[in-house]
Amino acid sequence: MKLGILVVYLVAEEDERLIEIHLSQIERTTNVPFRIYAAANRLLPRFREKIERLPYVSICQIPTTTLRGSSEHAYYLDRLVQAAVADGAACICTFHVDSFPACAGWAEKITAELRGNCVLAGAQRDERKDRKPSTEFMIFTREFYVEHRPTFMLTENELASLEYQRYLASCPHYYPDSGVGYGFKVWAQGLSWFPLRRVDRDKERDREYYVTGALYENLIFHLGGTVQDRPVREDLSSYKARVVMRLLSLVRALGSAVLPSKFWRRVNRITAIQSLAEAYWARPKRVRVFLETRDALLADPEQFLHRLQDRPQGEAEVSRDPKSAPLT
């Protein structure tokens, strides 16, 4: 089996060590023949030089897009998968620049689930609220791609269709980011996929639309939140932000303690208060969690991954009967 690995490389200057860990983990834990097909259009030149020297990396020449966010990510992935298929890859998988295998033998253990009607396996961020496969890790067969030609994003017309609304009801997810098109295609064709579920001890903390420090089946790790604008991180250290966050913290504590619960819930529904809470409470909290998690990973990757695991690395495996995997 030749494995094609698709990665869109884009990180801040201070995340050089993260790229090194990402590449090292792929090289060290992948026991099957593989090649990384990389998009590096907006990667810093010195980082690009570092990865293009590696014998197992092909930087694909793709016209640069002005799209941003999930649309940019999907644009490059759609073209990378074409390169991998043209180069003869039997299976194709995606990683983010901040996701990577957590233990040796991951590829064999996951591709063993791709049989019969099951054409794809992928990270499932939340078993209840975000159940679609996600591109921090997704693996699918060459045959599935060649026969059905899925795209990583859906068009506006597809998102507005009744068929997509049925898919959303069948397979709830927060928003149709890059990767939604593959889950939708699997569902629309009556095929099945194998969800890789979170097993890390922090999964209950992330019962929202963000994911930080996720470990899927002890096989795949995703830091999450790396592709953020640097000003977002720097804003956390500004005097204004720290003062407002402190005041908001005190108000929240006082309000929930003093006001009747029904009245306090009504206050929290006010749009202006929701916007303030998002800007100076929820968003900074997410970034702080990201920075703390990133720093722990960079300090000692092996110890960090060991802490997350719910069983020893040697016992890491997909632990469910594939027949029990949902069809959504």
What do these coordinates show?
The structure is a single chain. A hairpin with a 3-residue loop joins strand 9 and strand 10. Helix 10 packs across helix 12 (271-299). This protein has helices at 16-29, 45-52, 70-86, 106-111, 142-148, 156-159, 162-170, 180-188, 230-235, 239-258, 261-268, 271-299, 301-308, and strands at residues 3-8, 34-39, 57-59, 91-95, 99-101, 118-126, 130-141, 192-197, 214-216, 220-222. Helices cover 44% and strands 17% of the residues. The longest helix is centred in the last third of the chain and has 29 residues, at 271-299. The model is unreliable at 236-240, 276-281 and 321-328 (pLDDT under 50). The protein has a single domain (3-228, 297-324), classed as Spore Coat Polysaccharide Biosynthesis Protein SpsA, Chain A, CATH 3.90.550. With 328 residues, the chain is α/β, with parallel strands linked by helices.
Labels describing this entry:
10 strands, Spore Coat Polysaccharide Biosynthesis Protein SpsA, Chain A, alpha/beta, 328 residues, globular
